[in-house]
Amino acid sequence: MHRIDCPWCGTRDEAEFQYQGDATVVRPDPDASEEAFFRYVYLRENPKGWHTEWWHHVGGCRQWVKVVRNTLTHEIFATGRAQEDLPLPGTRAKPRRRTRPKQ
Amino acid sequence: MTEFQTIHPLGDVPPQSVESGDTSGITLNVRHEISMVQIFARNGREMELAKKLNIEGVPGRASETRSFTAFPLAPGQWMLVSKNAPGSGFGTGIAKKLKGIGYVSEQSDSRVCIRVSGSQARELLARGCRLDLHQSVASKGFCAQTPMAQVGVLLHQVNDGPTYDLYVYSGFARSFWEWLAHTAGQFGYSRGGRGH
């Protein structure tokens, strides 16, 4: 069970949230190839460790929350608003963004 | 021709006096004759809107004004609850004030307000609420949106008695009421009246 720190509401129970997937995916340019859009829509990595994710606070403020969570231990390192770039643990760098596929 | 009838989802719940509730520790009442509107600030106009209505946007804290209580729902969004009856023009009055800086959505018929009071009120809500309502954490004016019994609820602590107002979507009000009244039974609350 997670306790997620919503930037607006404060710390709330996981049951108030819906998991909404990978927050590192970047939409390709409109003129990108069909293959690029296929990867964007359907293909996801399944990392073991830190992962930046979307959680929708559907039972509270209905805002989208960005969460850095460890998929192995379920530890939550950081949460933030949708516009924020959250660093991964042990780095000062911004979370790794998936590079756009070759077009 | 069919006449439209306004049917309150909990219209058959009889009023309960606070005195009788004190003996059982729980008093449940449905608040009728209140107006509710939801307001949304235009992008970047949140501060202006709050200043115009003399309300605050602090999460978890209700703002009391002379004519309504404002509950912050999300950034730039509030629920306003007035003691004026629906049809009294509360919503249109707010809409006039917010012209150009925000939007208003009438909610008087979309939500039902259940007032929970009595010495055991906090313990009753703890049966279904994941929030910490202990007096050291939540006091008069506390408000939050949270699911209770699988139903989305806007919770407001009216006073430190404690008394709580629970705003529930009308379509879920009967289901929520059944859960609430059933759960209150273990604190000595007894149902009465038609449909219970």
Q: Could you characterize what this model shows?
A:
The complex is a heterodimer of chains A (103) and B (196). By secondary structure, chain A is mainly beta. Helices cover 9% and strands 32% of the residues of chain A. Chain A is built from one helix and six strands. In chain A, strand 1 and strand 2 (10-13) form a beta hairpin. The longest helix of chain A is centred in the middle third of the chain and has 9 residues, at 34-42. Chain A is globular and about 40 Å long. Residues 96-103 of chain A have low confidence and may be disordered. Chain B is an alpha+beta fold and 196 residues long. The chains are: A mainly beta (103), B alpha+beta (196).
List its salient traits.
heterodimer, A: 103 residues, mainly beta, Folate-binding fold, four-stranded antiparallel sheet, two-stranded antiparallel sheet, 1 helix, 6 strands, disordered C terminus, B: 196 residues, alpha+beta, Gyrase A, domain 2, Alpha-Beta Plaits, 2 domains, five-stranded antiparallel sheet, 5 helices, 10 strands, 22% helix, globular
